[in-house]
Amino acid sequence: MPNVVILGSTGSIGTQTLDVINHLPGYNVLGLSAGSNGKLLRKQIAQYKPKMATLLNQEQASALSEEFSIPVYSDPEGLCEMAAHPDCDIVVVAVVGAAGLKPTLAALEAGKRVALANKETLVAGGHLVMKYRSQIVPVDSEHSALWHCFEGRDKKQVSRIMLTASGGPFRNYTGSLDEVSVEEALNHPRWDMGGKISIDSATMMNKGLEVIEAHWLFGFPYCRIHVVVHPESIVHSMIQLNDGSLMAQLGTTDMRLPIQYALTYPEVMPSPVKALDLTEIGTLSFEKVDLDRFPSLRLAYEAGESGGDMPIALNASNEVAVQAFLNGKLTFTQIPQLVEEVMHKFTGKSFPSLEQILEIDADARRRAQEWVEQN
To answer: Which of 27, 54, 227, 255 yields a CA-CA distance of 20 to 30 A from 287?
Structure first.
């Protein structure tokens, strides 16, 4: 009976993970964590009866601990304690942003399988995380698809990786992106996600982070990782073999499929998701990416190729920029402007330690916040 800890249980990936577990025989919820959604966390604790939980609001955490007679941590270190708990078998890392790095490393160092749904962990600390390559299974639909495509295949047979992107809400937008509203940017055509990831999808920074993630997970140089726009979001990723042929993974647009695969890997089990019927889809289309419209993707390639501290600065400054946009302090097009300015303050210092990563992250956030205030 695998014991599962879900970090970020009240978010989109976390709630869908719980839905998957409802349909998987023998899987037990050992721990749950939330950032600020104490109301939903309380319902989850009542339903799944975990042995521990985390909620960053100290007063609410104490109340939950007293009500359910379990430890409820109220600081970020609680995530690490849960991730490394002796009874834990699988840790689903679904927290948003660079906050996922420390608990991911804590889980890996304790020998746990990590179902990784946090792109920023690999963007900021891929060189640290991939020391534990055999313990990681990706949850992102694109990387899960590549996991399928590479299964049992020698990577020397593959000429390039192809990540698909929906194009987001502004793929065919004809107006000025300077003037788009927060509501328009949050209106993703295919996925129902949280605010930060939805905005990253609108700018295509999400796809840029996935490019860096793919580099670490599969060991391919950036010149052999390509992005293609695929509005139907049925082909989740592809590999191109040396003879020019393509192998693709297709599936219903539902995150429960890659979540379940990460939990049951290497087994493929029946799923609650409706099976894909291509006759209902009818047409699959593909387009080139417009890097002039989506400069965030270009910036991610540049940061990834530079390496060292630049991807950390890219990620940290983007988090600040996205939050500022959501708060009405920046326009949509100022997001990549801020990121470009901040990341170019860094030099690509090679392979920083965890302590240095946290320092670089804090420095980049400070610079980004100053840019917001000045602009």
So the answer is: 255
